[in-house]
Design brief:
Blueprint: H1 11-36, H2 40-50, H3 52-74, H4 83-90, H5 97-126, H6 134-141, H7 145-165, H8 176-188, H9 191-196
Helix pairs in contact: 1-2, 1-3, 1-4, 1-7, 1-8, 2-3, 2-8, 3-5, 4-5, 5-6, 5-7
Length: 207
């Protein structure tokens, strides 16, 4: 007996999945930049350097997670759940044409940045290039941290356009994980370093 295909997920459930992709991507991006950023890493250097054998892998894991989530959000594979596919179904699910057009504009604006992060994913994560080095792959992509943040902002803007039109509250990025992570790093710092941290220093990574 031929197995029957599983029914498609409801639109609201698909929207929640895609929304989770971009919010998770932003969390991992923020955690990575706290460790890797030109300015923010100075605040956490005592703990990072003290436990370098752990944090050198942790730092890379955050970036890999960000890359995979953000690429999944913006991919076009018809077999996968992603933002573009969701927009194709939006009007049938009751979203107005104006809201869909606004969301599509955000996705189209992200296209040049998507091509950069896909280059990084393809050459360093999904398929390790045998022609260029790991560092050269990043240099060739010419992608900056503000551009990575912008990708997440455009993705969430598109999703919020749909949510708002459906009468749902707009979503924001999760800030608590970054705050907790920095507090953890301060706890792991040597005592003399903890005493030197000024309370006025912000918890957000430098942009």
């Amino acid at each position: 007996m031929t197995p029957q295909p599983s029914p498609h997920l409801p639109f609201d459930q698909k929207l929640a999945v895609v929304e989770d992709l971009v919010r998770r991507a932003r969390v991992f991006l923020d955690l990575w930049w706290l460790l890797a950023g030109d300015e923010s890493h100075k605040r956490v250097a005592p703990a990072r350097d003290r436990y370098w054998e752990f944090f050198r892998f942790d730092q890379n894991a955050h970036f890999v997670a960000f890359t995979m989530y953000i690429c999944q959000l913006f991919e076009k594979d018809p077999r996968s759940l992603h933002l573009s596919g969701l927009l194709d179904e939006a009007e049938e699910a009751g979203v107005t044409a104006d809201a869909v057009a606004k969301a599509r504009h955000a996705v189209e604006s992200a296209a040049p940045l998507v091509s950069k992060i896909v280059k990084i994913r393809s050459n360093t994560i999904a398929h390790r290039s045998g022609k260029i080095s790991y560092d050269d792959a990043f240099k060739r992509a010419e992608m900056t941290y503000p551009e990575m943040r912008r990708l997440t902002e455009l993705g969430l803007a598109a999703i919020n356009s749909l949510r708002s039109d459906l009468g749902k509250a707009e979503k924001a990025f999760r800030e608590h994980p970054l705050e907790v992570f920095e507090r953890l790093l301060q706890v792991l710092s040597p005592q003399d370093a903890r005493e030197a941290v000024r309370p006025s220093e912000g918890l957000k990574p430098s942009s």
